[in-house]
Amino acid sequence: MLSPIRLVSEAAEFAARRHSGMQRKGRGHEPYINHLAEVANLLSLATAGGDAELVAAGWLHDTIEDTETTHDELAQRFGLRVANLVTEVTEDTSLSKGERRQKQVEDAPKKSAGAKLIKIADKISNVRARIAPEPTKRQRDDLADYIAFAEKVVSGCRGVNAVLDRMFDETVALARSAL
Ligand code: ZN
After folding, report:
1. Disulfide check for 108: which of 19, 42, 156, 170 has CB 3.0–4.6 Å away?
2. What is the pLDDT of residues 65-86, one digit of tens each?
3. Which domain range does residue 95 map to?
């Protein structure tokens, strides 16, 4: 069993290696790891550093979906709770974008408390990434569309952590003012 700091540190390095070379959509195509660092840090902030497994799962939350990583591998390295959290927030990439979004909205209320927090942190990061300094019409439409979707998912995840709920609302208010 790793100490809390060792666990988070191992998770960060593992995620950095697995997502190496990947870029994210929006905000100047930053390295993908910026998104993972942001999600992990939001989780750490919202829980005042009290849940290392949740922060580790934040670093790892896209590894099963986007890289050659399995639940068993995560369970072996980081423990069953971390692996289960990542699996819970992994989407079925065989579905179309519309189907995936629909499923996220429907499944959100059924998720564990930890998975709900990862979902909210992920949505905060994704909304922030879509806020452009001088948006084109397409960027504005994309942001408005994404906010509407994110609000539906987050409405099924609220009530676990007031700090994160508020941060999401503040992010959406900021994003709306950029529309
Ligand atoms: Zn993500």
Report:
1. 156
2. 999 999 999 999 999 999 999 9
3. 4-177
